[in-house]
Amino acid sequence: MSAPLLRVRDLTKHFPIGKRGMFSDHRKILRAVDGVSFDLERGQTLGVVGESGCGKSTTARAIIGLHPATSGSVQLDGVELTSLSRSEWLPYRRRIQMIFQDPYASLDPRQTVSSILTEPLAIHKLAKPKERKLRAMALLDAVGLNPRHIDRYPHEFSGGQRQRIGIARALALEPELLLLDEPVSALDVSIQAQIVNLLGELQERFNLAYLFIAHDLAVVRHLCDEVCVMYLGRVVEQAPRDELFESPQHPYTKALLSAVPHPNPHIERTRERIVLTGDVPSPLDPPSGCTFHPRCAHASEVPDDRCARECPALVTSEGRSAACHLP
Amino acid sequence: MAKALDVRDLSVRFDTQHGNVQAVDHVSFSIEEGETLGLVGESGSGKSVSSLAIMGLVPSPPGVVEAGGIMLGDRDLNTFNAEALRRVRGKEVAMVFQDPMTSLNPLLTVGRQLTEVLEIHEGLSQAEAFKRAAHGLGDVGIPAPEERLNSYPHELSGGMRQRVMIAMALLCNPKVLIADEPTTALDVTIQAQILELMKGLQERHGTAILLITHDLGVVAGMSDRVNVMYAGRLVESASTAPLFDAPCHPYTIGLLGSVPDLTGPAGDDLYSIPGQPPDLAELPAGCAFAPRCSRAADACSEAVPATIEPAPGRLSACLEAEALAKEGGAG
Ligand SMILES: Nc1ncnc2c1ncn2[C@@H]1O[C@H](COP(=O)(O)OP(=O)(O)OP(=O)(O)O)[C@@H](O)[C@H]1O
Ligand SMILES: Nc1ncnc2c1ncn2[C@@H]1O[C@H](COP(=O)(O)OP(=O)(O)OP(=O)(O)O)[C@@H](O)[C@H]1O
Ligand code: SF4
Ligand SMILES: [Mg+2]
Ligand SMILES: [Mg+2]
User: Fold this and answer.
1) Which of A7, A25, A231, B322 is 20 to 30 Å from the Cα of A254, by its Cα?
2) Is B42 on the interface with A (CB under 8 A)?
3) What is the mean pLDDT of chain A?
């Protein structure tokens, strides 16, 4: 069997935070990503969902080497990326592109859209100089922006329009792997549908692989083949799309799915949901045992206080996995 | 109930080298004390720019704001000078900005930014301000809030930055809260917690909330009324349930039809409104939605449709509004 396009094993990313005091070291370790593993095949989409702050963006940033992993392995096509030097990275930069969660912060305010889109083409010597602007205009059209606005600056666009500039820039290099961090969250549902359809079409045409980070579970359900649920730096459940949405196993996944608001006021105002009680845990000081246990409605069903004492391993069976002590 | 905010005939234009962009075109609406008004619409339709205009934050040049009045209670913010606006902003009218990174200072800790608001507007001592700020961060579900006050914006996740913005907007218990896509970077469980927090503030202080969001589920749960914008204009306005049950503008119908489903078949193409939104520098003469509208007739392209009341308490700027109201059972 050939290696998957992307293979991530035991990835961790820890940040030291706090001040170094005169007499004592107050620095603490923040475990943003704490042992994440998954495979992603060509032509497939893996969704990553989970609580705000659970380490989704950090995982993606570690994959493209934006901040070096603390430990673990990231392989593209069998090549270990975590040990590459800056110059060795260049060819991979083109093959892996990322769409950032914060579109405005990732667009240079002094560059026009034209130069934002043609610069990567120039760096990677794609397309003849004369053709670059035409390519850029075609990309704008594909993401639903007016090609005639190509000479404008990022601040002249609305939030959702900027997000689409970021998408166009990532597509410019015709990557094999796209890391999409909340790529459609600033869009109205009609344009969102247009972009989701475009992503599906491009995937089919070029056999692209997507790592799709999103909070909108309906969009995740439409686009992803497989979904990974993260909680406090770890994967707590992973399953094929239909299995995950139809029979979630981990109590956190169940709570998450039950909290999705329904776009019908009559249903939305009467529906039942699992309310998570208890404080959101801190990656500076994670709870003992299963890190979800202080908020879990089922922890008391597991004998011997095991949830508070023992961290459940991610167990795989029948093509899906979950990390929970419940049988 | 008294009107907390009354916006009359607001227009915003950007005079650029590429032409005059009419971002907001004669928009009027009001929000009562304790009421939540949802604002939805096309990306680029002028939702954020209208909010910035209310806050007196449209950059000028190139922005040109014209308004018949931006009434905060009985005072017209449109007549306030910069200093007077600064005193109102953050205290009486607070805004959660769509783009946290552009409104948080990257060089200051979040603690510094939060306590500054309290020191300026509430005259708190540094120690008191620190306590209130930590409390505020805890309220928006940020763990270990005292420690997190020392973090810089880039050390926080996208959703945590968004929650810092929310905490900042809520610090002084504003009379009017404008929340521009406040929960886009949040998972649904934390989103629910934040929405509860906003409702709590509203119940205690009678806050009027303008809630801008693309999440129609959030609108369905939170809003008393909903305004719909398209190409800088208000095209429909109604109470929440009637709007969802029987939309009276074809854009609203298309928008509601594009919501992806959590059940039903997955993986197929999603519905989206055909065509592209118009160029705001070259708006068509008639209804801006006409080129994409399946019901458009010749008359639609001749003049901008007047806003009419196709059913009691509802507004729609569509020539077909009455027919749509009848078909949908709203009339
Ligand atoms: N400084 C500016 N110069 C020129 N045009 C601008 C400027 N700021 C905004 N615009 C234009 O004004 C229009 C309205 O922008 P606004 O940010 O209000 O949209 P929005 O409804 O909030 O969209 P979104 O849902 O994508 O956030 C957009 O089409 C945008 O291109
Ligand atoms: N540069 C950094 N320095 C210190 N801590 C960081 C840094 N970047 C991220 N973190 C921390 O790592 C944790 C995970 O952050 P990350 O951005 O990966 O979350 P996320 O899952 O993407 O959340 P969201 O859904 O809110 O975007 C957070 O606690 C965050 O504060
Ligand atoms: S291991 Fe225990 S605490 Fe953790 S999710 Fe399962 S039941 Fe809940
Ligand atoms: Mg993130
Ligand atoms: Mg906006």
Assistant:
1) A7
2) yes
3) 92
Q: What token pair was written down for A126?
A: 């794609």
Instruction: Count the Cβ atoms, other than its own, within 10 Å of residue A259.
Output: 20
> How many residues in chain B?
331
- Beta strands A96-99 and A45-50 are unpaired
Locate the DSSP E strands across A100-150: none
Nearest CA to ligand 2 atom 1: B155
User: What pLDDT, in 10s, does the model give residues B139-168?
Assistant: 999 999 999 999 999 999 999 999 999 999
From the CA of A306, the nearest ligand is: 3
Local structure of B79: helix, strand or coil? helix
Which of A180, A189, A225, A227 is most worth mutating to test chain B (most B CB atoms within 10 A of its CB)?
A: A189
Distance separating alpha carbons of residues A313 and A321, to the nearest angstrom: 10
A295 lines ligand 3 (CB under 6 A): no
Q: How far apart are the C-alpha atoms of A162 and A75, rounded to whole Å?
A: 31
What pLDDT score was predicted for residue A1? 57
pLDDT digits (tens, 9 = 90+) for B302-326: 999 999 999 999 999 999 999 999 9
Residue nearest atom 5 in ligand 1 by C-alpha distance: A156
CA pair distance B188, A277, nearest whole angstrom: 14
Task: In whole angstroms, give the CA distance from residue B260 to residue A245.
Answer: 14
Q: Is B281 on the interface with A (CB under 8 A)?
A: no
Contact A151, B33 (CB under 8 A): no
List CB contacts (< 8 A) between A187 and chain B.
43, 214
Whether this model's ipTM surpasses 0.90 comes out as: yes
CA dist A230 and A171 (Å) reads 27
| Nearest-angstrom CA–CA distance, A200 and A196 | 6
Query: By C-alpha distance, which of A241, A274, A270, A240 is closest to A257?
Result: A274
